[in-house]
Amino acid sequence: MKGTQAILPMQSAKVIDLNADPCRILVGDSLKILEEFPDKVFQCCITSPPYWGLRDYGIEGQVGAEMDVNDYIGHLVKVFQEVRRTLRNDGTLWLNIGDSYTSGGRTWRQKDSKNKGREMDYRPPTPKGLKPKDLIGVPWKLAFALQEDGWYLRSDIIWYKPNCQPESVKDRPTRAHEYLFLFSKTEKGYVYNYEAILESTKEGNGKKNRRTVWAINTNGFKGDHFAVFPPSLVEPCMLAGSNEGSMVLDPFFGTGTVGEVAIRKKRNCVGIELKPEYAEIAIKRLKSVTPELF
Question: Is position 22 within any domain?
Answer without folding.
Answer: no
